[in-house]
Write a structure and sequence with these properties.
The chain has 295 residues and is an all-beta fold. The protein is built from no helices and 33 strands. The strands form 12 sheets. The chain has a 4-stranded antiparallel β-sheet, with no helix packed on it.
């Protein structure tokens, strides 16, 4: 995420640009040089987001600068750890997204409960909404969605009046009402969806899949492949979750013993009518583009 002219990065590392940085760092966006920010996060940071006045982090960590922070933390743009914003999740936070009004923060991960700062634990199955100001857990819950066991990946994005939630393992992407949590649609795939964004009148999804359901609802593509269409790692849906079969950029990656095993799309950025994609691939629609491309 970018805040106050700085690019914030997270992960599982102990150095950046040859300097000691533990799992989180910031870089001057204009020059690419490392800033003086150093936070000593004890375990991996897997998610970052900002609302213009704070930067939020999620992951597997339990301390930041020696202070207890259970998988969630907030910083000022200059890098100061926020003392009062202290919600906690009982397991890993994988992704997060700030609401368009910047007052809410959606988080997703392997957790089954989330706690207010200094408050009680509240049951939340893999997705929750928090206040960006206080960290308090919102009453919002995802409705009419069953999360089975074996979850291996999750992603979330908040756009307009919708939350797009992707779940890998069960393998689907869903649109939910941002205010009520009501399910608008759910479209099946046969692999993890890492990212979902709106682009014009389409929802673009990317990830580690080969098949996408023609229509929302129904059985999964693993159990009912005849209801799905081959779209390798990248696909477009209508705003109602119906597969747009005319949009098929055809990503290519390496094969291992004749089997497609490369990761595919990891992240999207939409700028006007252009879609930037980052991930593991080496060709897009017969044009050589390794790991980074624009459509």
């Amino acid at each position: 995420t970018v805040a106050d002219g700085k690019l914030w990065i997270g992960g599982d590392f102990d150095a950046a640009d040859g300097r000691n940085r533990t799992n989180i760092a910031s870089i001057h966006a204009g020059t690419g040089s490392l800033t003086g920010f150093s936070a000593r996060v004890n375990r991996a940071v897997w998610a970052l987001a900002d609302n213009g006045s704070r930067v939020y982090a999620g992951g597997k960590f339990t301390t930041v600068r020696g202070q207890p922070r259970n998988r969630l933390a907030a910083f000022s743009p200059s890098g100061r750890l926020h003392a009062g914003w202290r919600p906690s999740a009982n397991k890993k936070v994988s992704d997060m997204a700030v609401t368009p009004g910047k007052t809410g923060l959606f988080i997703t991960g392997l957790f089954t409960s989330v706690s207010d700062p200094g408050g009680p634990s509240r049951p939340r199955n893999k997705i929750a909404r928090l206040s960006t100001a206080t960290g308090k857990v919102h009453s919002w819950v995802a409705k009419n969605l069953t999360i089975s066991s074996g979850v291996i990946g999750l992603g979330v994005n908040a756009i307009g009046d919708r939350v797009y939630w992707a779940v890998g393992g069960p393998d689907w992407v869903a649109a939910l009402n941002i205010n009520t949590g009501a399910r608008l649609w759910k479209t099946e795939t046969d692999g993890t969806v890492n990212e979902a964004v709106e682009m014009g009148n389409r929802v673009i999804i990317g990830g580690h899949f080969l098949l996408v359901g023609r229509q929302p609802g129904g059985a999964g593509c693993d159990t009912q492949p005849e209801a799905c269409v081959r779209h390798v790692r990248l696909a477009a849906l209508t705003m109602n979750g119906v597969l747009d079969q005319s949009w098929d950029p055809k990503l290519h990656g390496p094969k291992f013993n004749g089997v497609i095993e490369w990761e595919g799309v990891r992240e999207f950025l939409v700028v006007g009518d252009k879609l930037w994609i980052v991930g593991e691939f080496f060709k897009v629609t017969d044009v050589w583009q390794s790991y980074f491309a624009r459509l």
